[in-house]
Write a structure and sequence with these properties.
Layout (H helix, E strand, L loop, with lengths): L14 E2 L2 E2 L10 E7 L2 E8 L14 E3 L10 E4 L2 E4 L10 E5 L6 E10 L7 E13 L2 E10 L7 E9 L4 E8 L10 E7 L2 E6 L2 E7 L7 E9 L8 E11 L1
Antiparallel strand pairs: 1-2, 3-4, 4-18, 5-8, 6-7, 8-17, 9-14, 9-18, 10-11, 10-17, 11-12, 12-13, 14-15, 15-16
């Protein structure tokens, strides 16, 4: 995770201004919907973070790492960007926000990356969460993260959160510039059955299998280490999630 001293499934298409064309709701403010199909009901949510909130709520659609989980940090939105509130000095209390309500187990989420002032000496990660849950002093599920760095020290990881603060298990770790992200990249993660897959700009970069968690919600997160006061240097400018029964 980190600093190892580290409806219809969405598919990436061409983009305008860093927003995938096949996710039209990213151009609107937050929207959630249930769509019927022959296979059942699909749930989806998309947002461009058009309102300033601390922590993010968007009408009660999000639950926060601090406000619900207590031991992790929340996420705030401002100027069309979601950014973490982690101090950068307190360990693995990643900024976390999960979509509320029940979600089917097969999930997909993607987001458009904002990142500036990248540094080899600062660990900044953008994260997608799948099958995740928060309760007081517990955070479970799957984190798919990407370091905001396009050098040999860039990386992407798939991590299982086991509950207590700092209790996590690496399922995949990939190093190299092709696994880090830069401004405007679109990161995506899916979980189907027990297979978790990560993508950058439509290219698969990592995959892992795990059967620990069968249910939970999609969401997002951010990690910061080795510097304070730089939370707005990285985040997401758009986010969308969907599920399949």
């Amino acid at each position: 995770m980190k600093y190892i001293l580290p409806v219809i499934l969405l598919f990436l298409g061409t983009s305008l201004d860093g927003v995938p064309q096949d996710v039209p709701n990213l151009r609107a403010s937050a929207e959630s919907a249930a769509r019927s199909s022959p296979g059942g009901t699909h749930k989806s949510y998309a947002t461009k973070f058009s309102h300033a909130e601390n922590p993010i709520s968007e009408g009660g659609n999000w639950e926060g790492g601090k406000s619900v989980g207590l031991d992790w940090a929340d996420i705030a939105t401002t100027d069309g960007c979601a950014c973490g509130l982690e101090s950068g000095t307190t360990g693995y209390d990643d900024s976390t926000a999960l979509l509320a309500g029940p979600w089917a187990p097969n999930q997909s989420a993607q987001a458009t990356v904002h990142t500036e002032n990248q540094s080899e000496k600062v660990w900044e990660e953008v994260e997608i969460r799948l099958r995740s849950a928060l309760s007081p002093h517990s955070a479970t599920g799957y984190e798919i993260n990407f370091r905001c760095l396009k050098t040999k020290n860039g990386y992407s990881e798939i991590v299982r959160w086991n509950g207590p603060l700092g209790d996590f298990t690496y399922l995949s770790h990939k190093d190299g510039p092709q696994y880090g992200v830069q401004e405007g990249d679109v990161v995506k993660a899916t979980i189907v059955g027990n297979v978790i897959t990560a993508y950058i700009n439509g290219v698969q970069v990592a995959q892992a299998t795990d059967s620990t968690f069968a249910n939970g919600s999609p969401g997002m997160g951010f990690f910061l280490k080795e510097k304070t006061g730089v939370n707005r240097d990285y985040g997401f400018t758009g986010f969308a999630a969907t599920d399949e029964p």
